[in-house]
Every structure is written in C-alpha cells, then in structure tokens.
Amino acid sequence: MSEREEEEEGVFHKKLKVKMKEKGKEGRIAFLKDYLDYLLRNDKTLPPDFPTFAREIMGLDERGGFIHIRVWHEKSELVEFSKAMGYGHKIDHYD
What we know:
The chain is 47% helix and 18% strand. With 95 residues, it is an alpha+beta fold.
C-alpha cells in the first residue's frame, strides 16, 4: 500500500456492513454478546467507550438484515471480530 493510500485509509471513515445472525433487537443483543465473548476469549481490552458502542448498536437501523457500523480502516478490531465469529460482512466507503 502506498503512503498516499495509507493516508486516505486513516482519513476517511468506512462503513462496515455486518449481516446479523438474527433480526431485530435479539440479533443486536446476540451481536453484543458475541463481541464481548470475542474480546474476553482473545485477551483484548474492553474499549472504554463500550457503553456508548452498545447504545449505538442497539439504536442502529437494520437494512435487509445488515447493520452499518462506522470504522476507520479495514483492519479494525470489529472487522476482525466479524471474520472470527462468522458474521457476513463487507466494507464500503462513505459517500
């Protein structure tokens, strides 16, 4: 990756689209449980803003079974979590 691409990677938000395993509120609760499980089992530090993150996840609209989460880069911990836990996902650039 060129220096310019790395610079752009960090400047613009990306949209992580995660396919929920269940629809609605139950799916978002399961997502948060899976995320906590992932963090604890992999000795990751619980983000200090986790309560805010949980509120955001619970308030997201579900679009065709997907929720859209803003991430800074494609190597985000949320992307790694999605891969590791078997969530279907894709990453788009915000327009």
